[in-house]
Structure to design on (610 residues):
């Protein structure tokens, strides 16, 4: 039987008693070879979920699995299957780019240093440069090269684009897509802005208030959602309500109603996120 | 393995270079001051004069003793003060950086994501630092021992400079390294870990001093012998004055005083009564040989404490969330 690369089964994590759950009742099965966008606002639980797969967090409820391995039971086996890019490129400022690759090779004997060097050279980053001298975008490329150099079947990227300019984002995603498509790895890419990652992803998970609001392929999500001006709802049940790009009040509908505009990924995410916001719910109930 | 060591030392180069430079400077200073003391070869006949048992000071003795004391007090004292601080400072700074700084700068996320086994990562980080630090401190501690040997050639102060030289200084550096490791791993911040580690170091040193005093007090005092002929210092630590009675029985200070203060009528000097009645004054104390047993015990206990701290760090590293 082929194991699901990444799974979450009823996962809940709360950092301390009395505080709200960071994630709760999260059930996910990420298909092999996919690039999944894990989208949600700040505090939605994206990092908590990714860090649980990394074995950095211990779920209080349920379990996460990496190729069928629970990191709580065998962290060594689970982590050795993952290439990870943390939220902020957490590199050693006083080491060179190549030192990082050598360090990775010490930690992971299967690390493909030549591949990592190729990736950074293609990005115009010299191997002998100190990481402390690199820009944020270059550091992100180095972090990605390290993750890709592990040749891991699973890649977890925790908001790697947050500090990058638009050009650097595109370059970063291009490298990621190119590599994942050629190796057949499975990747999860978290972001709080869906437009950042939509060029790369074929699957979408919307995380809101620690719960999975939507999990679907990008194609299916777009096919199954429509947007409509609030005034044209005519009593149809909406997934959520949000302000459109031109300031108009829009509603997200689930279904394929004729005459309605196919929703963009951004609109789908906004619709689901608005559904769990208390202010939004109140607005919907108001006369 | 060497690649790993090279990267570790490069990453921690500030701490490692600072530690090595400090240890070499203090060690070199100890050797230099020790050599100067050894050069000032005080003639044997001057020891009793110097130590106060013979009143007449000759010009020759006066000059050589003054020259010795000039070196003995300030430069040698300064070196030994530095040796008191060096093991703790070097050990703490190096120890805190190994895990604490990784957590603070968030590089632990990268390291622990790459290293499937955090224990192996920790071992790879620790051993090069331990080896370099150990060698540097061993040089400084040995040099300080040579200084102490030159400085105390004329009296036996077995526990006087304890911890400022030799194996105990080295063991203290390792213990401080352990404290730095565990506080850094637990707190995940460099400065708070250094402060807490420094406080804990002083608590442990105080505890060691208290234990040492208690151990010395628990030893049965025996009659001490003079260090060597002509030297009024005793070979050990003096505890109290006593008298040996004509029948061979030892009479303690309180008992002797009671006898002496009720002398026969007409006795001018009550203490003289003891001498006139064949009571020989003797010194009771702990012999240097017995005192010498303490240092290996403290070295052993310090190493055990250091190992416990390293094991504690392993447990924290294994379970901790990288920030």
């Amino acid at each position: 039987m082929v194991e699901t690369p990444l799974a979450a089964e009823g996962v809940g994590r709360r950092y301390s008693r009395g505080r709200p759950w960071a994630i709760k009742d999260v059930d996910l099965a990420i298909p092999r070879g996919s690039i999944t966008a894990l989208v949600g606002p700040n505090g939605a639980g994206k990092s908590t979920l990714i860090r649980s797969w990394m074995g950095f967090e211990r779920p209080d409820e349920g379990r996460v699995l990496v190729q069928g391995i629970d990191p709580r039971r065998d962290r060594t086996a689970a982590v050795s299957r993952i290439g990870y890019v943390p939220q902020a490129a957490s590199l050693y400022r006083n080491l060179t780019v190549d030192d990082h690759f050598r360090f990775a090779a010490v930690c992971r004997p299967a690390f493909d240093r030549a591949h990592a060097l190729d990736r950074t050279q293609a990005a115009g980053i010299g191997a002998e440069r100190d990481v402390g001298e690199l820009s944020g975008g270059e550091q992100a490329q180095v972090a990605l090269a390290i993750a890709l150099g592990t040749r891991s079947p699973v890649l977890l990227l925790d908001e790697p684009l947050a500090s990058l300019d638009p050009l650097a984002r595109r370059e970063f995603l291009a490298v990621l897509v190119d590599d994942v498509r050629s190796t057949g790895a499975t990747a999860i890419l978290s972001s709080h802005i869906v437009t950042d990652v939509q060029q790369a992803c074929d699957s979408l998970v919307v995380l809101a208030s620690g719960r999975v609001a939507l999990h679907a392929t990008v194609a299916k999500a777009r096919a199954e959602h429509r947007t409509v001006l609030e005034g044209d709802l005519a009593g149809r049940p909406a997934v959520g309500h949000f302000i459109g790009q031109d300031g108009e009040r829009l509603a997200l509908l689930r279904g394929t109603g004729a005459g309605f505009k196919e929703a963009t990924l951004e609109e789908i995410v906004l619709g689901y996120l608005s559904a769990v916001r208390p202010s939004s719910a109140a607005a919907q109930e108001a006369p | 393995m060497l690649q790993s060591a090279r990267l570790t030392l490069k990453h921690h180069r500030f701490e490692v270079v600072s530690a090595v430079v400090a240890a070499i400077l203090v060690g070199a200073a100890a050797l230099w001051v020790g050599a100067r003391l050894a050069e000032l070869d005080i003639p044997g006949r001057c020891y009793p004069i110097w130590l106060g048992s013979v009143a007449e000071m000759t010009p020759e003795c006066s000059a050589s003793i003054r020259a010795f004391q000039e070196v003995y007090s300030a430069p040698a004292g300064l070196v030994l003060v530095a040796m008191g601080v060096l093991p703790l400072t070097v050990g703490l700074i190096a120890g805190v950086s190994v895990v604490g700084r990784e957590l603070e700068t968030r590089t632990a996320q990268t390291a622990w994501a790459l290293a499937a086994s955090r224990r192996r990562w920790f071992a790879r980080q620790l051993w090069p630092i331990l080896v370099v630090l150990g060698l540097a401190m061993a040089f400084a501690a040995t040099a300080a021992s040579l200084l102490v040997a030159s400085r105390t050639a004329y009296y036996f102060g077995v526990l006087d400079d304890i911890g400022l030289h030799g194996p105990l200084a080295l063991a203290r550096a390792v213990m401080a390294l352990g404290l730095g490791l565990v506080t850094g791993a637990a707190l995940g911040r460099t400065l708070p870990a250094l402060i807490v580690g420094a406080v804990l170091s002083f608590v442990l040193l105080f505890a060691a001093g208290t234990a040492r005093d208690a151990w010395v007090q628990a030893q049965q005092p025996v009659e001490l012998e003079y260090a060597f002929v002509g030297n009024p210092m005793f070979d050990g630590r003096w505890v109290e004055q006593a008298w040996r009675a004509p029948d061979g029985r030892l009479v303690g200070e309180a008992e002797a005083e009671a006898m002496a203060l009720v002398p026969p009528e007409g006795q001018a000097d009550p203490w003289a009564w003891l001498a006139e009645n064949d009571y020989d004054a003797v010194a009771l104390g702990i012999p240097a040989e017995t005192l010498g047993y303490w240092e290996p015990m403290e070295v052993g206990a310090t190493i055990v404490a250091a190992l416990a701290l390293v094991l504690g760090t392993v447990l924290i590293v294994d379970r901790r969330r990288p920030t």
The longest strand of chain A covers residues 6-13.
